[in-house]
Amino acid sequence: MSQTATMASTPVTGSQAAVEPSGPRPKPFFTPKKIILYTTLVFFSLYYLFPLYVMVVTSLKTMPEIRFGNIFALPQTPNLDAWVRAWTSACTGLTCEGLAPGFWNSVKITIPSTIVSIFIAAVNGYALVNWRFKGSEVFFAILIFGSFIPYQVMLYPLVMITRELKIFGTLQAVILIHTVFGMPILTLLFRNYFASLPQELFKAARVDGAGFWRIFFEIMLPMSLPIFVVALILQVTGIWNDFLFGVVFAGTQNYPMTVQLNNIVNSAQGTPEYNVNMAATVLTGLVPLTVYFVSGKWFVRGVAAGAVKG
Amino acid sequence: MQHSVSIRDLSLNFGNVKVLEHLNLDIAQGEFIVLLGPSGCGKSTLLNCIAGLLDVSGGQIFISGKNVTWEEPKDRGIGMVFQSYALYPQMTVERNLSFGLRVAGMPKAEIEQRVKRAAEILQIEPLLQRKPANLSGGQRQRVAIGRALVRDVDVFLFDEPLSNLDAKLRSDLRVEIKRLHQRLKNTMIYVTHDQIEALTLADRIAIMKNGVIQQLADPHTIYNKPVNLYVAGFIGSPSMNFIEGTLDGANFTANDGTVIPVGSYEYVAGAPAGAAKAVLGVRPEHIFLGAEAEAMPYKAQAEIEIVEPMGSETLAWTKVAGIPVTFRCSSDIVINAGDKVTVGFDIARGSMFDATTEERL
């Protein structure tokens, strides 16, 4: 009490000291740091969002309106004709059935490859961390080395292998290739994640008598949701966006959405229908975009969890 | 009598690093053994070997008369409690407790009965439907003990079970573990680096250093008759005071020339012939003040340098034979830094070690 009294009686010099500091420190909104921070953020979001804006706006316009020139202008009479054409009747090479078949092909490729590759990689990572076997480190090193080799180098041998397996030009071939190529990065991801879980949990489960699969399914998997989400996003977006493997291994009737999109946009016949092209592109990008939006929170958490401990 | 756990000539190497070397240890039925040592001494490794979580490089392990050297952990008749509790986070307490039994395929009725009994013993019945995340540290450790309890094993293994708890809880649970041992009468092997836990809980303590058991004895012997300089320095807080010098017959001459009579000392194997370099060790509570000091074989004038009041007692620093020593006295005695006092001790209650071999004389 006496202390406050003496403080108050001290003559105040300057206007800043007029308020006796007490409670939470005031946090002014307009500080130089915040202004710079928000300016930068706003600038870069506009920079990245602008192309998307142009695409969406163009896809809602009619061709005469596009030819008029103002690509930044809002559509005079917005209509979804271009979207419907892109989905149902745009010409992808010889057929004119739109992107719909490609969409379903992509689904048929993405779902099995994602599930199979994530499952195998999770088991790999778990075995590498918890069931060290002779040469497990070497095995892991070789696996990681695989992720540094450019895909193009392996393309021709893979064509021969799938031909010998008699699956070249089928959905199975693309699924197999995606599963194999997802292995290095996914195994690394799962291995790091399982290494970050306490070893004592695994020991406790062993003392309790649980074996390889029981520990995997009952102890490890329920604790691994974040890293599964990361793997899911990586695989879904990676496989959905793939062009190279799709065009090489799938065969004409199984072309994924990306390949058909390319065929629409790069078709040499007639005048380019920009509105249809834009709509088709947005449609193709919609799946990875949705995945990011829905699971963004999990993604960040999982990446952080998988990053620790090499 | 058959040993509950018997370790014969056990060795373990990680590559070229020898963690355990030809280690032998026999543990009687119902005995509480504490493996005590600093981190990296191999005590946890030894426990993991007994549990079957590490493959040994050589030697044998017997549990309840059965050679379990090549057995899986679950077939060894052991339960284990870990430092980090290692509770399965996605399971309720009840399912944590019953996991091992469910894996073993035990009938539901019996699982229920065993979980109930363990929960009763550990007083965790109200927590059965909770997840580990919603438990306090002490409650978690209780559940971890319960997980070993339900399996109805012969041997309990504790790997630093109290190290993650705060001081208050640690002393509470320490008493509970002791009570549990008295009630169950199982063999317990307990790893810790906390000497208070070791001294309070153990029937016998095995002090380890660099993978070798230095001394295996009851707490009283370990404390009062340490077998070598390492054990003497490790056990006791504050630690034993050491004075280096030369031992010749009934006199010990410290390096600064002070002569300390040691005629009353009981040698392990007789006094060494002739003069020998030696280290004299006296525990802080065996150094006396004032009138009591006058009655001791060795007494000297000394000046108090620092006083540390601990509440129940007072620690003081002074110099004997030119070497800083601590001693302990009742907190009723008022002493201050700078006081001139008489201090004295009787070597009969102290220890002497060979300066070169560091073994007890």
TrEMBL record, chain A:
It comes from the Bacteria. It holds the Pfam family BPD_transp_1. It is a multi-pass membrane protein. Residues 1-24 are annotated as: Disordered. It is found in: Cell membrane. One of its GO terms (biological process) is transmembrane transport. This is Carbohydrate ABC transporter permease. Residues 103-295 form the ABC transmembrane type-1 domain. GO terms for cellular component: plasma membrane. The lineage of its organism: Bacteria, Pseudomonadati, Pseudomonadota, Alphaproteobacteria, Hyphomicrobiales. Belongs to the binding-protein-dependent transport system permease family. InterPro entries: MetI-like, MetI-like_sf. Keywords: Membrane, Transmembrane, Transmembrane helix, Transport. Residues 1-16 have a biased composition (Polar residues). The chain crosses the membrane at residues 35-56, 109-129, 138-161, 167-190, 211-234, 276-294.
TrEMBL record, chain B:
The keyword Signal does not apply. It comes from the Bacteria. GO terms for biological process: carbohydrate transport. It is a peripheral membrane protein. Residues 5-235 form the ABC transporter domain. CDD domains: ABC_MalK_N (cd03301). It is found in: Cell inner membrane. PROSITE patterns: ABC_TRANSPORTER_1, ABC_TRANSPORTER_2. Keywords: ATP-binding, Nucleotide-binding, Transport. NCBIfam families: PRK11650.1 (NF008653). Belongs to the ABC transporter superfamily. This is ABC transporter ATP-binding protein. It comes from Devosia ureilytica. The lineage of its organism: Bacteria, Pseudomonadati, Pseudomonadota, Alphaproteobacteria, Hyphomicrobiales.
